[in-house]
Structures are given as structure tokens and as C-alpha cells.
Amino acid sequence: MNVVTVHQVLTSGAELATWMDDTTLASEYAANATTLKAVYNEAFWLSDRGMYRDNETTTLCPQDGNSLAVVFNLTESAEQATAVSDGLTENWGVYGSVSPELPDTIAPFIGGFEVQAHFIAGKDTRALDLLRREWGYMLYTPLSVQSTLLEGYTSNGSL
């Protein structure tokens, strides 16, 4: 389980504990989530790129980790979420967003989280542009069955 997911589990756990009227557990989960968020930003945020790196030994800024960091509220400000949204567009091609962690591959599953990240960052036009590129291509290409169930395809649109 990666840090982004652990943060979401802690945040959701704090919410559930609150609903169950267990304020002690809710406080503990929330405190751990807050600490994890600070450590995550310190270890993985690359201010010169405006994105999160994959791990402490690389400068690879993955589509999945950055998209989910915005979706699961690991960003520390609206400006940081906007920077991630801006950075994610660097991977866009004619047919969608190419995952840097999967060279030459457009992965619609994680692309859906990227769309969410753009909306959360207040970049609605950008989110809709990606929807049209990626899901529009899947729906209208004669190379497929005109469905959005493709697991992935290459950056040149081939399956």
C-alpha cells in the first residue's frame, strides 16, 4: 500500500470513527493523517517541477501518484493542486495522457483520476479536454468496439 492510499485510509478511518462516536480513535487517525501528509510533502514534492516524484531516488513524476495526491487531498494548498494539474498536462498527446510510469501507454483507469484532479484543481476546461481526447477517442475510433472499456492503448492510438 502506498503513502497516498494510507493517507486516504487514515482520513476515512477518522471519519468513520467520528460517525461511531469514538472521538479518541478519530483524533488518533486524523493526527496520523496530518503527520503523514507533512512527511509526504517534504519527501516527495519537487517544487521545481510542481509535482510529486515517485520515490526518494528518482525524478519520475507519475500520473497515478500525482493524480491521487490531489484527489485524496495530500496537496497542501490550492496552488499546489494547480501546479500538479499543470504538470500532468505535459504528458498529453493527441489521444490522451501518456503515463510516464508506463512509457507510450495511455491508461484510462488512472486517467479517470487525472480528470478528477483537474476538476479539483479548478481546471474544468482542462478536465473536459482530457475527457474528449481520451474517452472520445475510445468511443469513436474504428480500431475498437466504440466502448470506454479499453485497459490501455499506445500514444499513437493503436491497441
For the residues shown, what is the average pLDDT? 95
How many strand units?
6
Question: Pairing-aware structural class of the strands and helices?
Answer: mainly alpha
| Biggest sheet character | 2 strands, antiparallel
> Strand percentage, roughly?
5-15%
**Spans of at least 5 consecutive residues with low confidence:** none
Number of helices: 6
Instruction: Classify the helix fraction into a percent range.
Output: 55-70%
What gyration radius follows from the Cα positions, in whole Å? 17 Å
How do the strands of the widest beta sheet line up side by side?
1-2
| Shape, per Cα inertia axes | globular
Distance between the termini: 30 Å
The arrangement of helices and strands along the chain is: HHEEHHEEEHHE
Summarize the structure.
The protein has six helices and six strands. The model has no long low-confidence stretch (mean pLDDT 95).
